[in-house]
Amino acid sequence: MSSASQREVPSRASASPAATSADGAARGQGGSPIQRSLANDVVFSAKTFAAAMLALYLAFSLDLPRPYWALITAYIVARPLSGMMRAKAVYRLLGTLVGAAAAVALTPAFIDAPEFLTLALALWVAVCLFLSLQQPAPRNYAFRLSGYTAALVGFPCFDAPGAVFETALARVEEISLGVVCVALVSELVLPRYTGRYLMARFDIWLGVGARWACDAVLGRESAASQRRFVAEAAGLAELRVQAAYDTPELRAAVAATRTLHTRIAMLAPAVFGLADRLRALGPGEAKLSPVLATLAKWLSAGPRGAPEDAMAIHEAIVSARRAGQGLDYAGALAGIDGLARLWRECLILRREMRGRTGGAARRRAKSDPPIDRDPAMAALSAAALFAAILLCAGVSMAIGWQGGATATMMAATGGAVFAARDDPAQMAMRFSLWTTVGALFAGLWLVAVMPMIDGFPLLAASFGLLLLPIGLLTAKRATGASAVAFVYGFGGLMALQETYVVDFAAWANGVLSVTVGSWTVALVMALIRTVSPGWAARRLVAAGRADLAAIAGARWVPQADDLAERMFDRIVAVGPRLAVAGGRAGALLDEAFADFAAGLDLLRLRAERARLAPSARRAADLVLKTLARRFAGAPAPALPRRVDRALRRIAPEMRGDGAFDAAVALDGLGRMARFSAQLQQEARA
Amino acid sequence: MTGEIDVCGVFVPGFLIALAVALALTALIRRALAACGAYRLVWRASLFDFALAVVILGGVAAAQGRLPWM
Q1: Interface ipTM > 0.90
Q2: Within a domain: residue B68?
Q3: pLDDT in tens, A343-382
Q4: pLDDT digits over A520-547, tens only?
Q5: Distance between CA A23 and CA A13 in Å, rounded?
Q6: Between chains, do B45 and A247 touch, taking CB under 8 Å as contact?
Q7: Considering its fold, how many domains does chain B have in total?
Q8: Can you give the pTM of this predicted structure?
Q9: How far is the alpha carbon of A66 from chain B, nearest alpha carbon, in Å?
Q10: Which domain range does residue B12 map to?
Q11: B33, part of any domain
């Protein structure tokens, strides 16, 4: 992970970044520059299979009761990149330990009352799910897992509560075995680290951002590049979080990546606000064109541009400042200045990260990124899961069904895994489908293949026929979940046959219970929890407004970086949902951007208001109060008038820096409010 | 490595103790090496760490039972 791998960073991203890399990003799956080549997938599949077979072999030779759990775990934990795998592995171990301990603690307490035990376990799973939804990824996995591990251990032990400790122990042993085997194989054989991918992704994102800024500065149509900017951010955020679990050197650089991430995110409001100002100024403003041309030239160099070129822009701005007058003109220049400063910072941070000096960036190490917690939705998800478990367990208890425990386990697992999605029901159905397919193959193996097998090498070879091709699918985002579901079904149903005796009844019961469990959770989720992507997007935008209302009302004074991260996280979450929703999609994204820009202006105005003269300050406070009402959802027809009055009050003291910044912020707020109002009006019409 | 050791009434195999000791030792040595910057000379950190852990475990297990205090 030292200089060698830095040289390996795909040079495609740098050839002509502003144009080529952005195009490449749009074409590639998920905007990835990294050739998801077949060779990589084959290596990954072979590694996963080797780890799974190692785990299975050890489980057999240690005489563990459920060797196939180790195999399934290997496929669940395996990830192509080292950082992802480490995160998954550590949190899987932790979650399994906690969940198994919970099952062991709960079961004896309700030994004579299976109804209460069911209730207690369901409650535990639901509470864990709720907590997991309040945690950032990948840590949330531990919470979710400790929930349904308790279900996996607890429910099968209803008939024999005395066995709960053995079951819990077996589960922990086999999961640990699987995790350790995957970790060993994945780290020792051809490891792939996150670092180079992260740097390549940053370069692409910077290129896309530069392209968008260029489009906006030159007055070109920029909606497409704006959307690409958001799409590119989503994958990068995930990669960046996982980098925190990668090699120690990279872990040390994570603070720097976070700073760079926030800087690039802040390009969004800068570009968006500047585009609006330039539009208002009209194309006839010839006095600005030398500045804009210099800026565009610098930006079009993309991430390979030199931060030192900022001087030329600065000189051009200084000379342009003398040429024109009026707040619109000065505001546009301030916007250009802000964008240039931001871009310079981005370039410097990028260079520092490549050189691993990380001076300024490293000093700004911070704790976890703030995530958008939505307690109401989390509670709803948890309630839905609770209901699904009770339904499943209640019905199977009432009819005295043997496979009821497996069905309940499936309901708990599926519900917990898919609860964070907008469409958990659909995911659960797909999971059920592929689990069933896996179970069918397990049946085929048990009937046709196993009788011919007389040792582990032959068993491994026969599994290889099936699992090596499946492993190719686990590397891909689109098919990964289905492939893991397949292995889950396959391994789970093989596990029922501890002796190599074909037992059709047990097999059929297993398939039936998996299907019933998945369908129950799908049904309950469809009834309670499924939301449309458009609705989810609107909810995110509304949550952003609530933040802005809090800032305007002085109830919350965040750091600009924190606010930017929070607002941009929401935009990134809104983006893909709008792509699905269609219709008024672009408009809602624009509204989110306008809110983002308004948020930063609000902070600026709040910071400068103390330095204003009393009459101007009162006028500014009135604007803030009106904005607080507006962001809280109330109509505020007086807003433009009040903004104008505040601007008039500030005008006499415009020489001072504070007053000028306040005026620009006020002007920006007025613009963004007008912009949003117009979008909303169009939506209504 | 033969025999069991009584930890608060629970008999654990001696090898487990050796494993725990080796793990702690490895962590310490790793820290020290990282502080010296020795990892710059290492090709694959994970492979190096794993090998280091195995070597130390071997050493601890071999020493166990031979030294009077172990």
Answers
A1: no
A2: no
A3: 999 999 888 877 754 444 444 445 455 566 788 889 999 9
A4: 988 898 888 888 888 888 888 999 999 9
A5: 10
A6: yes
A7: 1
A8: 0.82
A9: 23
A10: 4-63
A11: yes
